[in-house]
Amino acid sequence: MAVNLFSYQRGNSILHKCNALAKVFFLTVFCIFIFVGAKWMSPFFIARTAACVFVPLLLLFLSGLSLRIFFNLWPVILTGVFVTAFRSFDLPAFSFNREGFYSGCIYALNFFMAALASGIVFKTTSPLQIREGLCRVEDALAKIFPFVKKLNLALAISLTINFLPSIFEYWNKTGLACKARLPSSKKNHFGIRIFTAHLSAFFSCLLYRAETSRRAVLNRS
Question: What is the pTM of this model?
Fold first, then answer.
């Protein structure tokens, strides 16, 4: 199944028009807030969980994106299920741990909502907008701390953020390329050999992209 996360999608919604730096800052604060520890069913826990659910849904409404973004998060859902299952049993006795099950469910919810909010923000914010916003912050800091300019933090952070959509893009492309080279009778079959070829092509593409970006940065520095 194709995965399309964190890639920019053109639009004219309220969220598309918001300041890129403000969106990234808000996303950072939101992700930190929902993962802060809280006592079970305490007022802060209830408020945090409510915000965890409400904020991403509000962002989705303001972004004008389709509900298909939920289906694109299936890898996050699988990860949440795995974490919950792992926390639900004590090893080696293999006995059910109710507290672990509850904490696993909360973690899975927080993880899913953080991924949803991140996906919405990056789908409504272009890589160029993110870099321009980070450059403005870097320029402001450089006036106080001149050495900041030499670190090229804005470039490094923007390249890291922009690399995330490439991971899913190359995963989809290499998967389609592998299927295109299979006989029609085996296109929907899973095989270790096919999966190994997919992974090999995937990592080769990512390494090539990383090396190309590195050389481009060196040529401009």
Answer: 0.73
Span 162-215, pLDDT tens digits? 776 676 667 677 777 777 766 665 555 556 666 677 677 777 777 777 777 767
> Domain spans of the chain?
14-125, 151-220
Tokens of 100: 């672990």
Which of 197, 165, 184, 203 has the alpha carbon at shortest distance from 72? 165
Report in angstroms the alpha-carbon separations of 96 from 8, 39, 79, 100, 106: 42, 21, 20, 8, 17
φ, ψ (nearest 5 deg) of residue 95? -100, 150
Query: Given the DSSP bridges, would you call strands 95-96 and 89-90 parallel, antiparallel or unpaired?
Result: antiparallel
> What region does 152 belong to: left with phi over 0, alpha with psi -120 to 50, or beta?
left
Q: Which letter does DSSP use for residue 190 in this model?
A: -
Q: Which of 14-18, 47-51, 76-80, 198-202 has the lowest mean pLDDT?
A: 198-202
